[in-house]
Write a structure and sequence with these properties.
434 Repressor (Amino-terminal Domain); six-stranded antiparallel sheet; three-stranded antiparallel sheet; 9 strands
């Protein structure tokens, strides 16, 4: 049993604590997405902000924002990160419905992180979801190989990002730059700039990503 110090939940935001809806890491993905979407909608409504205004603030179309809020499509980590920053809450609060409590340390065993992005071509796994007031968000990211002519999915989010490639090879696209990373290579960049990634050599690429 962990001996971490804990305290009363602190959401760092004057609105009420969101209803608890635990995300099972091996459960139904559709239900998980709907739970996250419900928290997004609840936060917006409590804060008395229209969906159109919030969509504009977060840099997405009104139609796409409404799809996110309905839970009908996958919600990318870049959007969740922007949303959490906008409302000054922990990213893991959106993912689990619970406020992080651990202060001293947090252990996440292999394969037990909280899944963030559920799109088929890649998977984000939050490695510190239960630690409060984090200075950075660490993720284990797996990128599945795709056809060479497949569309690259770009995203952006406030801050900076560090990537360290653990397995495979991949190309990273930052604005008009194309960078190839192999095992052991690392990359640090301004994550506010549009960026995307693609696994190459017909093998999955796995890397540690730290968002600051």
């Amino acid at each position: 049993m962990l001996s971490n110090n804990s305290s009363q939940s602190d959401i760092r935001h004057p609105i009420k604590v969101l209803s608890v809806a635990n995300i099972r890491k091996d459960g139904n993905m559709t239900e998980q997405i709907k739970q996250v979407a419900s928290r997004i909608k609840e936060l917006r409504e409590i804060s008395d902000i229209s969906s159109d205004v919030l969509a504009n603030e977060l840099g997405v179309s009104q139609e796409l924002y409404k799809d996110y809020e309905s839970g009908s499509i996958d919600i990318p980590v870049s959007f969740l990160y922007k949303f959490a920053n906008r409302f000054n809450i922990e990213l893991s609060t959106l993912l689990t419905g619970e406020n992080p409590r651990l202060h001293t340390y947090s252990i996440v065993r292999k394969g037990k992180g909280i899944s963030v992005d559920r799109r088929q071509e890649y998977k984000y796994e939050n490695l510190a979801y239960n630690f409060i007031h984090k200075k950075a968000e660490p993720f284990m990211v797996t990128v599945e190989p795709e056809a060479e002519d497949a569309e690259v999915h770009y995203n952006s989010h406030p801050g900076q990002e560090f990537n360290y490639l653990l397995e495979g090879s991949m190309k990273v696209y930052i604005a008009d730059h194309e960078i190839t990373l192999n095992e052991g290579d690392s990359l640090y960049f301004d994550s506010g700039i549009n960026h995307g990634m693609r696994a190459i050599n017909n093998k999955p690429a796995k890397f540690l990503a730290i968002i600051l």
